[in-house]
Amino acid sequence: MLRFLGLLLAFIFIVPLIRMVTGLIGRAFVNFTMGPKQAQPQRRPGTPPPAPAGGTLRQDPVCGTYVSERVAVTLNKGGQTHYFCSAACRDKFA
Ligand SMILES: [Zn+2]
Q1: Which of 2, 11, 28, 83 is the most exposed place for a label (fewest CB within 10 A)?
Q2: How far away, in angstroms, is 81 Cα from ligand 1 center?
Q3: In this structure, what DSSP letter does residue 94 have?
Q4: CA 60 to centroid of ligand 1, rounded, Å
Q5: How far away, in angstroms, is 86 Cα from ligand 1 center?
Q6: Tens digits of per-residue pLDDT, 55-66?
Q7: Separation of 64 CA from ligand 1 center, angstroms?
Q8: Hey, is 75 helix, strand or coil?
Q9: Cβ–Cβ under 8 Å, residues 72 and 87
Q10: Which tens digits make up the pLDDT trace of 29-69?
């Protein structure tokens, strides 16, 4: 009986783990087949909508995210404009 309970407990812990792993693999597969731009990540309610399309994409030198010039946080340093996804990244860079 105890053995059965142990097995049941193990099962309860393992099932969500497997689900999580398969979910991650599935998402990675979608990214791989469709490209990261077309794979729309599921947004939680309350999060801001994705950046409006348009404008030149610039790479954030801190975190590597591509961000549109229109919505990027900018910093002028040495006569060059740097583009960041957020003020936090800009502060890290400065
Ligand atoms: Zn960033």
Answers
A1: 2
A2: 15
A3: -
A4: 5
A5: 6
A6: 889 999 999 999
A7: 6
A8: strand
A9: no
A10: 777 787 766 656 677 777 666 655 678 899 999 999 999 99
